Amino acid sequence: MMKSFAAITIATLCASTAVTAAPAPRAAVAAAPIVVPPLVYTKRVLKNGMTLYAMRDPKAASVSLYMWYKVGQRDDPKERAGFAHLFEHLMFKPTRNLPQGAFTYMSTIVESANATTLFDDTLYTTTAPANRLETLLWLEGERLKNLVVDQANFASERDVVKEELRQRIFAAPYGRILFKLIPGFVFSTHPYARPIGGTAEDLDKATLADVRAFHEAFYRPDNAVMVIAGNFDPRQLEAWADRYIGSIPKPAAPLIRIPSSIEPERTSPRLVDAYAPNVPLPALVAAWVAPAEANPDSAGIDVIEALLTRGAASRLNRVLVTDKQLASSIMTYNFDTRDGHAFAIVTTLAKGADMAAARTALDAEIARLRDTPVDAAELASVKNALLGAALSDRETPAGRVLLVGDGDVLSGDPAHDDKRLTAIRAMTPADVQRIATRWLGAQRQVTIRYQDESLRPAGYTGDVSTNDVAAMGPTVPPATRTPVTIASASEREQPPSPGPQRRVVPPIIEATLANGLTLVSAQSTEVPLVTLELVIAGGDAADPAGRAGLADLTAALALRGAGRRDAVALAAAVDDLGGRISANAQADATIVKITVPAANADAAAALLGDVALRPSAAPEELDRERRKLADALAVSEKQPVQLALRVLPAALFAGTPYGAVATPQSLAAIDAADVAATRAKWGPRGATLVVTGSLDAKQAAALAQRTFGDWSGGAPAPTFTAIAAPSRIIAIDLPGAPQSAVIAALPTGPRSAGDQRALQVANAIVGGGSIGWLSKEIREKRGLSYGAGSQIDMRRGGGFVMAASQTKTASAPEVVDLMLAQFARLPADPPSAAEDAERSEFVSRILASQTDRTAGLGDYLAGLIATGAPLSVARAELSPGAAVSPAEIAAAAKRIDPATATVLVVGDSKAWLPALRAAHPNVELVDAATLIGK
User: Fold this and answer.
1) Rounded-to-integer distance, Cα 170 and Cα 176, Å
2) Which end of the chain is more exposed for a tag (fewer CB within 10 A), N or C?
3) In this structure, what is the dihedral angle of CA atoms 817, 823, 828, 832, given to the nearest 10 degrees?
4) Helix ranges (DSSP H) in 311-407
């Protein structure tokens, strides 16, 4: 899967009984009905058998083209597990007319491009400015008919895929749960039993002939579904589709199809003990085979998932996390699949919690769903939450495309999601009880107790699946077509040129209330959604000495009681409105955010006002949140990238407000008086309300006045300049880690230190996307990592450019040198004017993709405000900008000098420290606890 970096969290206490108290009565809020517009589309089948759906949105500035090939993990050939995933990567390599590679070319024209290998299909996604639709259609036709599958491309991507497997499965403490244990023990005969992503062993056995055969068998127009949504002329779309896609011949050979099948019904529960290295806190998994997507009961599983785990009001969060304190986080896997994959609940235990108590409490909640009808008010609240989420999903062309395509491919019905929502609206307590009894029966349950490798009994191998997966998969006949080769320069077909650009920037209006509260509003969509973000000056950098983590705890406690509602009642009220709420502390500000259907904007603003003005968290909530945060810190200490990111501020900004890092000791020192003192500083004179979505400026101003007009107090954000520490190379030992993280941070000074647009473009040259130098050198040329890139972290008092990669353990010293070399290359080998122009446009396109949703635009504006940027920056950055000149790039390059870099290398140091020290004698082997002042 071609995706970026990600992360996970945890918690627990003891339960002596399976009896669960009834939930407290819910204080209803006045919620308006949530109307979700239906999916509207046209359907065509091209003459070669490809299915094309189109969804026109004449007001969109972009267009999304998603392509599904009906080939997934279930179709991997015998003893070639991982082939569908491997081929996903190969589809981004060179074609006859794109010698530089499809992904490299895409990166010069699109806002976003990605791909995902799933159980039943492989999905390729692109979103681009609307004037690039013809180019996207040409590109998909080019990839389908003219892909170059040669030994060099095959070998390089096989190495990258193997690194991805190491990163996702073996380097992540809980990666084995999803990728190996759930498929290996929930399934036995169904193809879903194969390890997700395949295995390095099977990939190593593969030959070029195998890959070419797979390509010819499955990548054909009659095995594909294309969905397009956005701003286009329907007649022109039809003509382009016929020209670039419909003209590709349909192969004469019959399609290989693995028929749908059913996993044998389990008649008795199964318990598996599993172990893995570097597991910081135990985890408990409960999993069942779920209904197929086309089964009407699949909507009931969505409801049950929300009842159990969606937010603080959900049953498992309320019982296991809050009441019994047996878990600090609970997550689910609920995949949409043709035949029904697993519905799994993953509970990571709190430090010191008892596994048996957690299992008893979890099983009791599942039994309660089967045995007792759900309360009507609780069910209504969950329905509203799901309908609100569905409205958000349909806000953008990309969101609508995904729903139509998944419906066709997985259920045979492009309107499947509309019918799912109808089923959710109509669902009764009796329906939920019936579905829980049918699908979550005790006899169908697989329970996995997941613990650290140090606890494995001698000789124990019970966590290795014995399924005969080698026999699974089709036999694929040899390829018969002549392999495609790269055309000579004179023979190459050029991609179509773009039409007129259609990018539209919403007006951004700034006003100030009489009490000093700043209001920023942007009417950004006609979809009835609103996001409200309250940006309050003073984040992590304002924590007093010895109290690092205070802002984080204060933000968390803001949602643990507000007005007359406790944490559960507050979360339930947000669900009633069909919304989502969050609160988090950043370096320079604390941000509280709520997104709701526009009809419920006033009620949501009232809840936001309670959170900001009327805190009422019970005293015991402080200890609960402290424990959860401490457990999350413990998890980060076992993951190379997360540990590196955690200690980076302490290394880069030592001795400044940005250098303080939360530790269990600093969290333990925080008391209720500290939290109260921090809350006392919240006030309108240091706050900004950001309103994005369908409200106009007048409506936003009236809402702000009604909600916050009587608020008083506050102070502007503190000003200071954080001087970065001298250059260092720091090694941190993480014994047994299967990969190592490499991070290089180059201080830039504050925003005022130079042209920010030029810095963004310079960063894009070095580490932006697949054609950034870091990705080219580390991933593409050498296959050392699944991903490498860089980003800017700008704060009020300073900033830095951070390059990051997670690599093969032994390759860490090489990656360090490659990273530093790319930054040194910028002034020594400046890009051409054409490259500057392309990277300037790249920066604009990426920002467009990040702000095309109501919540995304709100996050962007809130981030600028938190760092002290004027709104003129937003207006300039969101508009199509002129290319940055070579002279401006040269000036920006001086701000990111590798001689100033702080480099962190985190992993099993015995594999790379000698080589790193030979190249860099000044390397320091430092204990992480010492670095952050534990």
Assistant:
1) 7
2) C
3) 130
4) 315-316, 355-371, 376-393, 397-406
